DNA sequence: TAGATTGTTAATCGATTAACAATC
DNA sequence: TAGATTGTTAATCGATTAACAATC
């Protein structure tokens, strides 16, 4: 499809691996905070909630950053994963829709110990515009394109009501934002090359309900049984 | 592992399918609101953002609810998927941690047009306790076990700070809650049989950053290129 | 050298997809 | 009957996992 420019080492980290790298990174940062210098795949996997074979396979896609017989140097691995994820640079984030959720995200300080900067808050409600949220002035959504340009926004977070989400997404994309995190309960239509990730509370609850029902009609009392097994 | 009780039709809906059923359900409800009576796999798939082969395959795991040459009756399929997901009953949900995010969730009304009921809000901060949020009195976290029992809570939502999350999870599980939705940035340790789902803003942003970086160093200017391709 | 642990292989499993026979 | 569309088959693809040779 696109021409492949010459690159060091063949890329192509599996999506499933990419999705776990942030989990490993957080576990490593926790170890680092405790002053741990070195960790085995077994221990890191356990901290990340995966099995060690999967962890080693995942890390092998980044390179050979461990030492046989020893393990992985925590600080070095933190750096390598951060670099791979693109966290050694700073990404400007704009949040559109400053309701309860938008405010919660704006105030959520620690984005995995840096890599992101909330650069702008946008809302369609004139009463909201001008208010200060998390030390930022809320700007009117009409200024989206201008803000994206001036703040070099590359990630757009959509926390608008469902009806407004597609319109905002299209404007983000046309303004040059190719990464979107969508909290609105709609399927966004975007052109190829734009990356949309979706976070949806109802969907998560419904998936939980499915399994809960299974437990409930599968055996007598699922929840209590699980409780008893608690170690 | 567990004894299999006699059941109609062999169950075992793939996890990937379960995760998509809520998406189909929402698309169907939108169609229903517009008064659409019947829909083809092609159209429903398009509304849900998947391809039609996948949709048909997914639905085939529930049964044969379509009519060849015609499509699916919207209302009937809404009912079948709702039933499969366990939404024909009401699930009581407790939210632990009434910060910005907890409040946002408590105030988030439409949980996919019913199936869930926010039954309790819990917080460890005495200043928070007794306040009214979304028409519910915030109760002290010490009452967790009592509240789970009296309200028959089966789903626990954790929006506490990271340090408190594991403790709250353990208490939920011991109280009989076997379904947990975790917004805290930690890996929860729970016994087998307990279902934990995780929603994590930083992880989503980091995955977006990975792809954004790819675009950025893959070709000249990824975002603008994507913008130009917009139809 | 002996013990520990990585990085990789290969087998297995599950998910996706195209194609089409069945059937309305 | 002709046209449309489902439900299923089978091929393909990607992810997981156990096992172990390589090597610190």
SS content category of chain A: alpha/beta
Largest sheet of chain A: 7 strands, mixed
* Main sheet: strand order of chain A: 6-7-5-4-8-9-10
Low-confidence stretches of chain A: 1-10, 220-231
Give the % helix of chain A. Answer: 40-55%
Head-to-tail CA distance between termini of chain A: 52 Å
What count of helical segments of chain A does DSSP give? 9
> What is the number of independent domains of chain A?
3
Quick summary:
The structure is a homodimer of 231-residue chains. Chain A has 231 residues and is of the alpha/beta class.
List keywords for this structure.
disordered C terminus; disordered N terminus; Rossmann fold; homodimer; alpha/beta; Arc Repressor Mutant, subunit A; globular; 3 domains; 231 residues; DNA-binding
Care to describe what's here?
- 2 copies of one chain form a homodimer.
- Chain A is an alpha/beta fold and 231 residues long.
- The first copy, chain A, contains 9 helices and 10 strands.
- Chain A folds into 3 domains: 13-83, Arc Repressor Mutant, subunit A (Orthogonal Bundle); 89-198, NAD(P)-binding Rossmann-like Domain (Rossmann fold, 3-Layer(aba) Sandwich); 200-230.
- Helix content of chain A is 44%, strand content 18%.
- In chain A, the strands form 2 sheets. Chain A has a 7-stranded mixed beta sheet with strand order 6-7-5-4-8-9-10. A 3-stranded antiparallel beta sheet of chain A has the order 1-3-2.
- In chain A, a hairpin with a 2-residue loop joins strand 6 (132-133) and strand 7 (136-140).
- The longest helix of chain A has 19 residues, at 15-33.
- Mean pLDDT of chain A is 90; it is low at 1-10 and 220-231.
- Chains A and B meet through helix 1, helix 5, helix 7, strand 9 and helix 8 of A and helix 1, helix 5, helix 7, strand 9 and helix 8 of B.
- Chain A binds a DNA duplex (24 and 24 nucleotides) through residues 14-17, 40-42, 51-54, 56-57, 59-60, 64, 66-72.
């Amino acid at each position: 499809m696109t021409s492949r420019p010459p690159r060091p080492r063949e890329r192509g980290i599996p999506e499933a691996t990419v999705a776990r790298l942030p989990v490993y990174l957080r576990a490593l940062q926790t170890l680092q905070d405790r002053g741990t210098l070195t960790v085995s795949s077994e221990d890191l996997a356990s901290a990340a909630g995966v099995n060690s074979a999967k962890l080693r396979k995942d890390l092998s896609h980044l390179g050979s950053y461990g030492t046989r017989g020893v393990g992985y140097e925590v600080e070095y691995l933190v750096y390598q994963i951060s670099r791979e994820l693109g966290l050694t640079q700073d990404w400007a984030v704009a949040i559109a829709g400053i309701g309860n959720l938008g405010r919660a995200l704006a105030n959520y300080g620690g984005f995995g110990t840096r890599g992101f900067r909330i650069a702008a808050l946008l809302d369609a409600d004139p009463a909201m515009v001008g208010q200060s949220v998390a030390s930022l002035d809320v700007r009117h959504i009409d200024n989206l394109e201008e803000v994206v340009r001036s703040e070099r926004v590359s990630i757009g977070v959509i926390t608008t009501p469902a009806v407004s989400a597609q319109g905002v997404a299209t404007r983000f994309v046309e303004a040059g934002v190719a990464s979107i995190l969508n909290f609105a309960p709609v399927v966004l239509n975007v052109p190829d090359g734009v990356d949309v990730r979706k976070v949806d509370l109802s969907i998560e609850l419904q998936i939980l309900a499915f399994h809960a029902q299974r437990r409930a009609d599968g055996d007598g009392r699922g929840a209590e049984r699980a409780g008893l097994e608690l170690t």
